[in-house]
Amino acid sequence: MTPRHLLLAGAIALALSACGKSPAPATETPAPTPAPTEQAAPADTEAAATESPVEATPVEAAPAATATGSKPAIVANCAATIESNDAMQYNADSITVPASCNTFTIHLKHVGQMPVAAMGHNIVVAKEADMRAIAADGMTVTPEHLKAGDERVIAHTAMIGGGGTSSLSFDVALIKDGGPYRFFCSFPGHLALMQGSLQVQ
Ligand code: CO
Predict the structure, then answer these.
(1) Does position 19 have pLDDT exceeding 90, yes or no?
(2) Which residues surround the ion ligand 1 when the cut-off is CB under 5 Å?
(3) In this predicted structure, what is the pLDDT of residue 52?
(4) Residue 90 gets which letter from DSSP?
(5) Taking Cα atoms as reference points, which of 95, 62, 124 lies closest to residue 197?
(6) Contact 147, 186 (CB under 8 A)
(7) DSSP assignment letter at 172
(8) The whole model's pTM is what?
């Protein structure tokens, strides 16, 4: 194997492990992967391990299993502005981060008038799998409604009331793998309406 092939094989292994699914044969990659473990064993051989996922479904081109939203935020210069209001809403439910960005910034505006204690909004970026626990653990923490030092939080704005603004920035590499990721408001009770998808593309 040339070093170049080794690199390729390594990258493919990384990509496969990162997507967290059983490794189906990569049909579209022309790389000569000498990985015999990826070949599904013929059904009539007994050699395969008992738990061998012979019926593994093919990996979809886009592994986005969750809703990507219907109101995409406008993204320019590696940043997006999200508005929130007194009706417990963001004005977007999807943010697509260009893969060319190193750092991405989200500006949050509260265009309502209600005070932060009654209609507070923030934006928290985290794995979808961590979202509910983050909000639950921040329930009683005022005014931020985030547990101090919560390591599941990738980035967050301040909690703001009507007329307020706050921004967050994060390293795009942090959300390239291991998702899906979402953005949401951790104010008690707001998660149900105030969340959206966050993907790199
Ligand atoms: Co809110």
Answers:
(1) no
(2) 121, 185, 187, 190, 194
(3) 44
(4) B
(5) 95
(6) no
(7) G
(8) 0.67
